[in-house]
Amino acid sequence: MDNTTQERLMAAIAARRDDLVALTQDLIRIPTLNPPGLNYREICGYLAERLAKSGFKVDLVRAEGAPADSPKHPRWNIVARHEGPQPGECVHFNSHHDVVEVGHGWTVDPFGGEVKDGRVYGRGACDMKGGLAASIIAAEAFIATCPDYAGAVEISATADEESGGFGGVAYLAEKGWFDPDRVQHVIIPEPLNKDRICLGHRGVWWAEIETHGRIAHGSMPFLGDCAVRHMGAVIAEMEETLFPLLAGKHTAMPVVPEGAKQSTLNINSIHGGEAEQDPDYTGLPAPCVPDRCRIVIDRRFLIEEDLAEVKAEVAALMERVRARRPDFEYEIRDLFEVLPSMTDQDAPIVTTVARAIEQVLARSPDYVVSPGTYDQKHIDRIGRLKNCIAYGPGVLDLAHQPDEWVGIDDMVQSAQVMALSLGMLLSGAPDG
């Protein structure tokens, strides 16, 4: 791609600044909350209408039978494809359209799409409707500026990334949408900053640990066996042995932020005894010794660790507690597991986006790895497509926070990087 075409692409994106802002606002104003999975069909319909007008062939795909898919909350995805007049490779931009709960502490309307001080505010602005909008503007500008390009451009907006991606990218990958024969390059516009290329992510193991006890009247706890006390001993053992062990494990992966360069464990939830009643219940709880207590653990592990060893550490901990406590019984149930993923730094999509960042921002990119997983895991493991990165506008620390926002200048510059990357990969020239 020559310098004149690059300049035209940059200008085409700049000229679409207002459209980029308006598109981001429109997407934020569709509250695609997950759980339970609200308005998935509405946002896919909105995108289908927009992309069809831009010449894309659009497919709406429901992930029937996937976890959480139901008649009340169907898991809808959109995949849009634009074919150039010459044969070539396909570049695919994948964004998730779901957002997490609002939470407390907002000073603006979470679904208002308010523009203030060069930012667009709202739930999902950063994670990742700003990135989705930037990829659409980049693709539309590229197609208009370089109509004779070689290959294809795809844009997808997919469900349920915030809850594992099984109703979105995982389903599409299982159905062949990310087969390397039809897609060769993938950019996921997650909010990793406009000057950083994210190569992958740490691994994750979610598990539920349950301690067993024996129910009895609360006035005579000696006739029962308190499962909550048993769980207290488990957590104490974690504090004493497991957390220090994990703090000593470090990775060569360029994980950000700094604290995520070590292995981590989060106790995600704890439930014991009588179930919580509805908020309008005004009575007292019944006096019972709890016979069950459960915690959910979220263990993030490094590429240098083996998943079997990760699980064995927790099993050994439970056995140490059992050795000290009479009648101690427990279960460990796997909930979710993902192996670490990291694309080679010399992969075609990495080197191309790096060149585009240098053109737009006049600096070399930083290469990072995400502390948490995202949909690259499914493209890699199920789709067998390794040439995949995350690159998009937004500050990762703002994700899931109150007053979430995305910078307008950041979106414009990220869209320019994406458009230049398309030009480099789909120009049809021998050097790509």
* Biggest sheet overview: 6 strands, mixed
N-to-C SSE series?
HHHEEEEEHEHEEEHEEHEEHEHEEH
Instruction: Based on Cα principal axes, name the global outline.
Output: elongated
Low-confidence residue ranges: none
Helix content: 25-40%
Care to describe what's here?
This protein is an alpha/beta fold and 432 residues long. The longest helix has 21 residues, at 125-145. Helices cover 33% and strands 23% of the residues. The strands form four sheets. It has a six-stranded mixed β-sheet. Strands 10-11-9-12 form a four-stranded antiparallel β-sheet, covered by helices on one side. Strands 4-5-16 form a three-stranded antiparallel β-sheet. It has helices at 3-15, 17-28, 40-53, 125-145, 169-174, 227-247, 307-324, 348-361, 376-381, 408-425, and strands at residues 57-62, 76-83, 86-96, 115-116, 119-121, 150-158, 185-188, 196-201, 203-212, 264-272, 292-301, 329-338, 341-342, 366-370, 388-390, 405-407.
Descriptive labels:
4-stranded antiparallel sheet; 432 residues; single chain; 6-stranded mixed sheet; 16 strands; alpha/beta; elongated
Secondary structure blueprint with pairings:
Elements: H1 3-15, H2 17-28, H3 40-53, E1 57-62, E2 76-83, E3 86-96, E4 115-116, E5 119-121, H4 125-145, E6 150-158, H5 169-174, E7 185-188, E8 196-201, E9 203-212, H6 227-247, E10 264-272, E11 292-301, H7 307-324, E12 329-338, E13 341-342, H8 348-361, E14 366-370, H9 376-381, E15 388-390, E16 405-407, H10 408-425
Parallel strand pairs: 3-6, 3-7, 7-15, 8-14
Antiparallel strand pairs: 1-2, 2-6, 4-5, 5-16, 8-13, 9-11, 9-12, 10-11
